[in-house]
């Protein structure tokens, strides 16, 4: 590092800029002059000259993040220009400076490596705990380096410069072996270090990315020289590393590092050399000894992965699992696990296969397990880990032999395989798939996600599933799911295993595969992973096949098959699956020279070698092994056996043969290496068979002494096992075992010879273990005639039933085991069946709790007519019984204030969300606004108390009551609430506000509605049709209304029931805000309460009508039939309504049913008059009448009330019509009506009645005011239609009321018949006539002569008209035409909303909000969380939700595209209704994709709003503390 000497002002400026850590203004100033070419060159050279100084300042800086960004801000402008970069490289030694600066930077945080030989190690590695690595302080320098290496000319210079390469390899070796993990054997580690993040980031950024950058320039033949250089210096660095850590042949136990960047450089350049540069692999590979060393550490990582997943590292804490996952995770795998496995594949293809296989089993510590004895000792592994380690070893071998990522696959094939593997694990969204496919980290490399090949491969392998909803309401994004043919042909379990970060994903892929096979009918049972054909190997790696054809592997396979057949412990289906997979791989990849002469000689006689005659799997499969000598503990069952008379010399001294074999290979000079190989192989084979029959048994080498546990091992002794099996016979017996039947295998070619010619039969491609065995036997038969013959022989003489006395103890054990398993299975089935039936009955009762009306009465005893009561089940104590005065039962209900009805508009065009200044929304035309105006007008001209009975409120802030249908004792509920109060861990609801979740179905609730103790007999009494005449009934109704205070439950005596009814009434009142209950001029007047109570009933009926789509055409029980609580609600309201007496003089009933005599206009008193009957809302009158009658009500009285009210409604319709038509029409009707007046049935003809209304109203000043808007065509049909439409809303409400009070289903009908069907259902139509001559007037039943009644009603209007002629028409009730409530219509493209709102100023505080939001109900623009618009500690969104939706608000957050729901004191994120082209949300607009409206989602949102189900469907609620 030279001393800086400044010669010009620019250098001085830059120096101080660096000194002060790049102040933003200086950076901008220096960059602004770059367009000047001379300055650019001068500045770049100065920058390079100060590079070391930048590094020093950066290291010292406290704000290294900010500084890093500013450095890169400058350097990226200088170094991205290839011409400039090349010039500076040549003139200023840029590469040297960069590499040296990086090296120097890392040197400051080196520590001694503890890998291998702790005491004498000379190797140093970076310390991942240092701030430099933890905070990624090095990244600006590394990113500059990667940036300049992307230029071909600069990279070329780097790859040609030997000195630079040496320095760079020196730099990389600092990371070799960093972050060493030592396995904790005794206690759990005290402090879990998180340094591994830093280690993985450092290897990826400082080593792997420059490597990918260099590799991108080694793509053609002409660049061979570069590869040779890198490989040469890489190997030198590796040799130095082995020397420095004193590595000989055995890795130190219980240590692992995941960081071997030198190995990976070596591997990746080898791969490139073969794939792109046509280099001969053998010319750049080192000698055997070096290869043996090279394979050790990557192999150690694979074994450690298996150990970590077997929970052997559990005492090191969670971080070790984190490392194992990061190592295979998508951003790291192609720089870590892929090169490691490739390197192992290269070593395996060049080393002695027996040596390699034995090393694998030794590394995985399962050598001792591979014995034929039923018991063994493992000196290096606890028995509980043996099984998963054995699975790990076999799985690793399968990966090693099947993967072709670097061994011949093209880039497109790799991409396709990666994509299929990810999609098989789970359906994926487009963005997560982009993230999960390992990309080549260098940006200038081939496969860039999102490139053409990505999209085309995606459409080839996957189908798009549009975003949907699950019944629970959780929203799915748009997903890609594998096509059927992908599951059928391309599902590759090996690739899935390689790429899974979580082990559960492998299971998930298998489950999905199973489901596909079941669904497509290919295989019904539990399938095994399918065997997939591989891409052919590149010729350079043909040596890999030798692994499949070496005796050691065959001995292992034979032993494992035997052990599985004998049911030895610690073996699993997975082990068998992998064993079969390896056999199948061997058969698929058999060496070409399967010699026929070997067959003619007859394989069995030539058994002079131990175990197997040759190394070819095809011929070894049929070789019978008769006796095996094993070493077993003395306690083992085998010891008791007598050895047979002639023991075959099957266990020839394997040690000699192995030495002989190795010495024949003299391609590498030193004998010492050979003895190493021989020792390892000898030791391995000795352990594996423990059957050396000769005296000169070789002692186990000393190296392994440190593994053996001291002392505790029992004595080993030799036993001889009679085996008499070959791999083929074991496979056939396995087939029998798997199928559970004797003789289950029958060679398929005996029936159909074609099988041998076309062995690729689809029926073998999917299936379980039996299918796999059949497939293997078929392949073995296809490959050799001898195998075919032997399979047939074995099948012919398969074991006859064995006489019982010869069963050995081991076999007996297996039989018992099988029987026990069978019994256990049966028991389990029985239990499951019982459980299922219980669950079913629970579902039936829980989900269909009838509302008590529909409860089936208990058997009525024939002897005495005793009355059966409704029976309720309490979901807390589980007892059933009636609801009584003392111990009332209640329904679990949720009370919520609702303004949904108020949002109805009288136009069918939905309102749009404003997205320009011109579009604005006014709430003048909403239902709530119009009702408000009407009430205020009435209160101006009429007596307050009478006004408050002429309308209903609750259009805004009405109380909606809903239930899940479950009942509980009210005292049980109180103790339940007490326990919730004591339980501190509450999920999103507040017990102090009375909130809870239903104990059975967990639905949100906040009150209990007492069930009125009623009996079911009364129902039948009510419904008996009496023949009393109309007059009598009218009188009875009046008398009943007079009996105020005589309530069946006498209120004077306070019972538990009446107390509860009062408390629930309080809850109902407190549900909504005061402003929605107080409408009277004198605050606190009882009229207010009266109005509020019947309006609650009105709100619930109207909402049910909305939920049914605004009409009753669909009929049937209420959609919420099982869950309706209206009956109970009416009882509670009625009880309270009857506490208010109506003065009999003002009782509306009399005005409706009697003609008043004293028409004395002189008596006009000072006070305001009452509201004329024709101005009163008939539905409100209906509820007042019903709820003030003593309960339970008789059906005949109900019908009587309806008939009387219908006459009033009809008159109102005529009056409204008369005002609408022109003066000429009025005259015409007046005359035609007068003519027909005296005909029979005149009272039931609309013409007569209309004429009468016109003549009566003409007496006042009603028609004089200006011309009215005219009815277009006034013909009889349109008048009839108008009258029916006018009366329909009342009929609908009444029919619903009747349905809830008296049960009985609603009839379904066509829309045009709705009027007649409802009228006859309500008893207004005497007998149903055919519809052609039907008129609405035929439903009229006048209690007193019609003309007198009409005259009386009209005279009230006439007298009002004298005083206020301008208001008469305005107050006449008009034909209501409300559309269903809708949310605002949103634009197709989200950008439209975003552009308009995200810079829009708030109307309250005139600032641009940080988090703008817009209400989707009324379009108001609000500041989310804005303190600027806070009023009395309420932020604007919460305030708006109370004003607009009585506590429910739906807001679209402009900057996040997400919708939030506010419900009372809680809120939740609902999700987004805008999705990108792949059906995904883009929360917080992070990905910046164009978003489009998802109409289905918006429909669901609207549906939840209208049906008030936000609380039930959305699960993640939290308190907002008024801060939104």
Topology:
Layout: H1 9-19, H2 24-32, H3 37-49, H4 51-60, H5 64-79, H6 82-92, H7 94-107, E1 110-112, E2 124-126, H8 131-134, H9 139-149, H10 152-160, H11 162-173, E3 181-182, H12 196-215, H13 224-244, E4 255-256, H14 261-275, H15 281-284, H16 288-309, H17 318-328, H18 337-350, H19 353-363, H20 383-402, H21 411-425, H22 430-436, H23 452-461, E5 462-465, E6 479-482, H24 484-490, H25 493-499, H26 504-520, H27 551-565, H28 573-588, H29 596-601, H30 617-620, E7 625-633, H31 654-663, H32 671-689, E8 716-725, H33 727-739, H34 754-757, H35 769-783, H36 785-796, H37 809-847, E9 872-873, E10 880-881, E11 889-898, H38 927-941, H39 944-947, E12 958-969, H40 970-982, E13 996-997, E14 1004-1005, E15 1007-1010, H41 1017-1023, H42 1030-1042, H43 1056-1071, H44 1086-1107, H45 1126-1137, H46 1148-1153, H47 1178-1187, H48 1195-1220, H49 1223-1236, H50 1246-1258, H51 1276-1302, H52 1314-1321, H53 1346-1363, H54 1368-1371, H55 1390-1397, E16 1412-1415, E17 1421-1423, H56 1436-1445, E18 1448-1453, E19 1458-1463, E20 1466-1471, E21 1474-1475, E22 1492-1493, H57 1495-1506, H58 1510-1513, ...
Antiparallel strand pairs: 1-2, 3-4, 5-6, 7-8, 9-10, 11-12, 11-15, 13-14, 16-17, 16-18, 18-19, 19-20, 20-23, 21-22
Helix pairs in contact: 4-5, 4-7, 5-9, 6-7, 7-9, 7-11, 9-12, 11-13, 12-14, 13-14, 14-18, 16-18, 16-20, 19-32, 20-25, 20-28, 21-23, 21-25, 27-28, 27-33, 28-35, 31-32, 33-35, 35-36, 42-48, 43-45, 44-45, 44-47, 44-51, 47-48, 48-50, 48-51, 49-50, 50-53, 51-52
Description:
With 1524 residues, the protein is an alpha+beta fold. It contains 58 helices and 23 strands. The strands form nine sheets. Strands 17-16-18-19-20-23 form a six-stranded antiparallel β-sheet. A three-stranded antiparallel β-sheet has the order 12-11-15. A hairpin with a 4-residue loop joins strand 18 (1448-1453) and strand 19. 43% of the residues are buried.
């Amino acid at each position: 590092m030279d001393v800086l000497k400044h010669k010009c002002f620019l250098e001085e400026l830059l120096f101080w800029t660096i000194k002060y850590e790049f102040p933003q203004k200086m950076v901008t100033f220096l960059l602004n002059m770059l367009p000047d070419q001379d300055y650019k060159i001068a500045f770049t050279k100065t920058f390079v000259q100060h590079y070391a100084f930048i590094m020093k300042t950066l290291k010292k800086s406290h704000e290294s993040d900010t500084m890093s960004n500013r450095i890169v801000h400058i350097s990226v402008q200088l170094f991205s220009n290839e011409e400039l970069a090349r010039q500076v490289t040549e003139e200023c030694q840029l590469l040297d400076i960069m590499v040296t600066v990086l090296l120097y930077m890392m040197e400051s945080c080196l520590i001694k490596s503890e890998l291998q030989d702790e005491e004498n190690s000379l190797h140093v590695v970076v310390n991942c705990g240092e701030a430099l690595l933890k905070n990624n302080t090095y990244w600006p320098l590394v990113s500059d380096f990667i940036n300049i290496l992307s230029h071909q000319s600069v990279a070329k210079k780097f790859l040609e410069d030997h000195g630079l390469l040496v320095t760079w390899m020196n730099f990389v070796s600092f990371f070799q072996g960093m972050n060493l993990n030592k396995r904790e054997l005794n206690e759990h580690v005290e402090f879990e270090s998180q340094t591994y993040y830093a280690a993985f980031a450092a290897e990826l950024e400082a080593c792997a990315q420059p490597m990918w950058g260099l590799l991108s320039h080694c793509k053609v033949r002409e660049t061979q020289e570069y590869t040779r250089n890198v490989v040469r210096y890489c190997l030198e660095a590796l040799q130095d590393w082995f020397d420095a850590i004193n590595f000989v042949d055995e890795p130190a136990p219980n240590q692992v590092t995941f960081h071997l960047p030198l190995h990976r450089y070596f591997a990746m350049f080898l791969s490139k050399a073969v794939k792109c540069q046509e280099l001969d692999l053998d010319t750049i590979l080192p000698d055997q000894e070096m290869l043996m060393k090279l394979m050790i550490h990557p192999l150690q990582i694979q074994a450690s992965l298996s150990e970590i997943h077997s929970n052997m590292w559990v005492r090191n804490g969670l971080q070790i699992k984190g490392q194992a996952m990061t190592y295979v995770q998508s951003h790291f795998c192609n720089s870590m696990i892929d090169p490691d496995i490739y390197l192992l594949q290269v070593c395996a293809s060049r080393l002695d296969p027996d040596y390699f296989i034995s090393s694998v089993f030794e590394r995985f510590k399962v050598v001792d397990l591979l014995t034929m004895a039923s018991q063994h000792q493992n000196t290096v592994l606890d028995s509980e880990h043996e099984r998963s380690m054995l699975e790990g070893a076999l799985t690793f071998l399968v990966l090693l032999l099947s993967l072709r990522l670097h061994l011949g696959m093209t880039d497109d094939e790799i991409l396709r395989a990666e994509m299929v593997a990810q999609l098989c694990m789970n359906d994926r969204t487009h963005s997560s798939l982009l993230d999960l496919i390992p990309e080549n980290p260098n940006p200038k490399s081939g496969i860039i996600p999102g490139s053409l090949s990505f999209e085309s491969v995606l459409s080839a392998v996957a189908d798009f599933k549009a975003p949907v909803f699950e019944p629970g309401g959780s929203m799915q994004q748009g997903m890609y799911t594998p096509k059927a043919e992908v599951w059928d042909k391309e599902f590759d379990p090996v690739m899935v295993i390689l790429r899974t970060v979580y082990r559960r994903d492998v299971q998930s892929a298998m489950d999905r595969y199973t489901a596909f096979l079941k669904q497509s009918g290919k295989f019904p049972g539990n399938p095994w992973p399918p065997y997939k054909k591989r891409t052919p190997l590149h010729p350079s790696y043909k040596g890999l096949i030798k692994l499949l054809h070496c005796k050691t592997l065959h001995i292992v396979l034979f032993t494992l098959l035997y052990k599985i057949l004998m049911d030895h412990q610690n073996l699993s289906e997975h082990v068998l699956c992998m064993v079969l997979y390896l056999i199948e791989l061997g058969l698929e990849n058999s060496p070409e020279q399967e010699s026929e002469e070997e067959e003619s000689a007859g394989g069995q006689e030539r058994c002079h070698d131990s175990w197997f005659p040759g190394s070819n799997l095809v011929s070894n499969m049929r070789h019978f092994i008769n006796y095996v000598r094993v070493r077993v503990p003395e306690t083992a069952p085998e010891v008791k056996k007598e050895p047979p008379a002639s023991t075959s010399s099957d266990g020839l001294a394997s040690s000699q043969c192995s030495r002989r074999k190795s010495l024949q290979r003299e391609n590498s000079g030193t004998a010492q290496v050979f003895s190493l190989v021989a020792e390892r192989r000898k030791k391995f084979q000795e352990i594996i068979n423990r059957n050396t029959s000769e005296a000169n048994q070789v002692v186990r080498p000393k190296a392994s002494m440190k593994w053996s546990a001291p002392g505790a091992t029992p004595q080993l002794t030799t036993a001889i096992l009679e085996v008499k099996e070959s791999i083929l016979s074991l496979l056939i017996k396995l087939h029998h075992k798997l199928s559970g039947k004797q003789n289950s295998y029958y060679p398929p070619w005996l029936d159909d010879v074609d099988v041998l010619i076309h062995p690729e039969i689809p029926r073998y491609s999917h299936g379980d273990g039996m299918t796999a065995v059949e497939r293997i036997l078929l392949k073995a038969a296809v490959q050799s005639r001898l195998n075919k013959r032997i399979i047939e022989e074995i099948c012919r003489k398969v074991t006859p039933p064995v006489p019982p006395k010869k069963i050995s103890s081991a076999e007996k054990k297996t039989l018992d085991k099988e029987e026990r398993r069978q019994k256990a299975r049966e028991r389990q089935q029985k239990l499951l069946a019982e459980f299922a039936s219980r669950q079913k009955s629970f579902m039936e009762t829980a989900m269909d709790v009838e509302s008590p009306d529909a409860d089936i009465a208990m058997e009525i005893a024939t002897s005495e007519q005793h009355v059966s009561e409704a029976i309720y089940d309490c979901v807390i104590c589980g007892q059933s019984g009636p609801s009584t005065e003392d111990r009332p039962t209640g329904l679990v209900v949720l009370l919520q204030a609702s303004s949904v009805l108020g949002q109805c508009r009288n136009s069918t065009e939905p309102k749009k969300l404003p997205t320009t200044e011109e579009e604005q929304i006014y709430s003048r035309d909403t239902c709530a606004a119009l009702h408000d105006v009407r009430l205020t007008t009435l209160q101006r001209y009429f007596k307050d108390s009478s006004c408050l009975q002429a309308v209903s409120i609750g259009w805004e802030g009405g109380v909606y009551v809903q239930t899940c249908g479950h009942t509980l004792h009210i005292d049980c509920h109180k103790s339940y609430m007490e326990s919730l109060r004591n339980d501190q861990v509450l999920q999103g609801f507040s017990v102090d506000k009375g909130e809870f979740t239903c104990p059975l179905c967990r639905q949100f609730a906040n009150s209990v509605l007492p069930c009125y103790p009623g009996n079911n007999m009364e129902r039948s009494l009510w419904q008996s049709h009496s023949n009393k005449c109309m007059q009598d009934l009218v009188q009875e109704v009046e008398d009943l209304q007079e009996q105020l205070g005589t309530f069946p439950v006498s209120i004077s005596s306070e019972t538990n029931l009446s107390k509860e009814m009062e408390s629930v009434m309080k809850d109902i009142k407190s549900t909504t805000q005061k402003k929605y209950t107080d409408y009277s001029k004198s605050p606190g007047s009882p009229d207010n309460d009266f109005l509020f109570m019947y309006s609650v009933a009105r709100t619930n009926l109207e909402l049910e009508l909305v939920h049914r789509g605004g009409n009753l055409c669909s009929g049937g029980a209420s959609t919420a039939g099982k869950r309706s609580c209206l009956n109970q609600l009416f009882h509670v309201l009625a009880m309270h309504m009857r506490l208010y007496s109506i003065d009999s003089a003002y009782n509306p009933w009399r005005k409706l049913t009697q003609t008043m005599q004293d028409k004395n206009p002189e008596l006009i008193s000072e006070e305001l008059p009452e509201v004329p009957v024709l101005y009163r809302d008939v539905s409100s009158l209906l509820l007042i009448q019903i709820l003030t009658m003593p309960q339970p009500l008789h059906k005949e009285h109900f019908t009587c009330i309806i008939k009387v009210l219908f006459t009033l409604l009809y008159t109102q319709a005529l009056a409204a019509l008369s005002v609408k038509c022109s003066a000429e029409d009025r005259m015409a009707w007046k005359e035609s009506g007068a003519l027909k007046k005296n005909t029979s049935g005149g009272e039931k003809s609309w013409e007569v009645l209309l004429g009468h209304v016109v003549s009566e109203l003409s007496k006042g000043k009603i028609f004089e005011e200006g011309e009215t808007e005219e009815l277009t065509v006034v013909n009889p049909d349109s008048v009839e239609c108008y009258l029916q439409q006018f009366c329909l809303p009342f009929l609908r409400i009444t029919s619903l009321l009747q349905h809830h009070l008296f049960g009985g289903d609603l009839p379904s009908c066509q829309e045009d018949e709705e009027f007649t069907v409802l009228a006859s259902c309500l008893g207004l139509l005497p007998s149903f006539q055919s519809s052609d001559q039907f008129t609405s007037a035929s439903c009229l039943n006048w209690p007193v002569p019609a003309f007198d009644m009409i005259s009386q009603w009209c005279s009230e209007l006439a007298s009002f008209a004298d005083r206020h002629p301008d208001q008469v028409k305005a107050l006449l009730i008009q034909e209501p035409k409300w559309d269903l409530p809708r949310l605002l219509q949103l634009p197709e493209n989200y950008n439209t909303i975003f552009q308009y709102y995200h810079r829009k100023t708030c109307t309250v505080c005139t600032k641009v909000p940080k988090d703008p939001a817009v209400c989707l109900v009324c379009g108001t623009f609000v500041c989310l969380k804005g303190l600027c618009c806070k009023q009395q500690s309420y932020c604007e969104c919460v305030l708006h939700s109370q004003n607009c939706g009585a506590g429910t608000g739906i807001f679209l957050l402009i900057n996040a595209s997400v919708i939030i729901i506010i419900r009372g004191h809680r809120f939740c994120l609902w999700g987004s209704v805008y999705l990108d082209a792949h059906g995904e949300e883009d929360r917080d607009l992070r990905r910046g994709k164009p978003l489009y409206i998802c109409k289905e989602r918006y429909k669901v949102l609207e549906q939840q709003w209208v049906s008030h189900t936000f609380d039930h469907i959305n699960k993640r609620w939290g308190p907002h503390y008024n801060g939104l």
